[in-house]
Known about the structure:
CATH superfamily of the largest domain: Isochorismatase-like
Shape: elongated
Number of strands: 19
Amino acid sequence: MLCCRIPYCLLTVLLLLNCPHGAADATDLSNAAQTLTLRTRIRTETAAGSGRWHSEIRPVEWNAGQTAIVVCDMWDRHWCDSATARVTELVPRMNDVIRSARQKGVLIIHCPSGTMDFYRDTPQRRLAQSAPVVETPVPLETWCPLDPQREGDRLPIDDSDGGCDCDAPAGSFRAWTRQHPALEIAAGDAITDSAEAFFLMKQRGIVNVIVMGVHTNMCVLGRPFSIRQLVRQGQNVVLMRDLTDTMYNPARAPYVSHFTGNDLVAEHIEQYWCPTITSTEFLGGQPFRFAADRRPHLVIVSSEPEYRTEVSLPRFAREHLGKEFRVSLVFGDAADDNLLPGLEVLRTADMVLVSIRRRTLQPDQLQIFRDFVAQGKPVMGIRTASHAFCLRDNAVPADRAVWPEFDRDVIGGNYRNHWGAGPKTAVSLASPAAADHPILKGVHLAQLSGNGSLYQVSPLQESAEALLIGTIPDVPSEPIAWLNRRADGGLTFYTSLGHIDDFSEEPFRQLLTNAVTWLSRTSVDQPDDPTP
């Protein structure tokens, strides 16, 4: 390698030239380390064995002097061209975070695996090498593979083809020679690609670690300086989830967009390994988002006991929305289904799908819904959403809040009751003009029926436009799908369909997919990630 023949002093100069801000951004060691207040995101299972997870925000305070940032495998080039391009896109935001962290007293450890010859004899490399070896109760590993006992037998994405989403053959050549040259290496930073990183942490009294870099499903989890290893050694670890990327090919299961693949691996890490944060914890503003990631953000909120939408809606989202949408799921709490842990994610979502029945929320949680609607953002409701936030004649608990006008003002309906269980509901167009609406495109009504009881909702509000009518014998027909143009300027699509058996019918799934797609085009572009 050419760099092996470069004299030490000249290599140091070259590093500084490639890192023009390095000297200016080096940590002033005379300054006392600051306190880092981080809003971490973690996932907890709604109930043991449910397979459904709450997303919760948990603030932590860390001493910056006891904290390191590990920069994982941000190479100058990858054998996959699209991976190389995304790394280059990450670098400017990553530099900004690293500068901010240095100034606060955080140690920066650069870990471009397999390139140590390039950095031979640099002060940063020698710093890592100088740390004494430490005996550990848990053996240190050179690679930490998937842990079936802790995280199951597979990741949520199939990366068995190497994960490249362009034409390069997997692992076709060794492309990297160093860390990306635009990623700054400053005086006082360290460079390593081994367990030296952990030895240096122990020498410095570092117990907190922030991991960033690539690739989340591979090196970020498995390297000897990264998540699995450091969690096993007892470090407090978080992943900076907006400054990472996966090796995932959307042509493989679960057949979602590359960026949804990113989300799925980050969620896996939150479930089984450690919390995550975003770069906003250091920089404010909005999280980093790849330029090609244009997915609208849909939040699905499910808390109702009758129709099992906590099962049907996640499955529907996984199978039909993952290519085009970022989807966040919020479920009722197992101990008190009037509580909705993680509802904060709605604050900057683009649209919401509501499947809630007669919940009395905490006032601050209900206000999240009210604020979302007041912004004129799209709302979808299925089945019991027409009576989501109201009781019948029961008293409202003193510490809870209701919204009985939600049906009238947001849904545009007039729910009074439902006809008893009986024959399936036949479905037809509400008017000839409805046939041309994009929401009904490809929906074969002859194959669509309602498997739940027919709701009594007539007459709709004047602001509502009926699309579909439901009919059962011996009672008046009722609207079962409509659009409501709200006073706040937003649009709502609602259907009283939504029984779990309805999801087995392809026309119903097509109806929901069309509605999500059409409504998303009415939403104002929003940043993709509202939480840390």
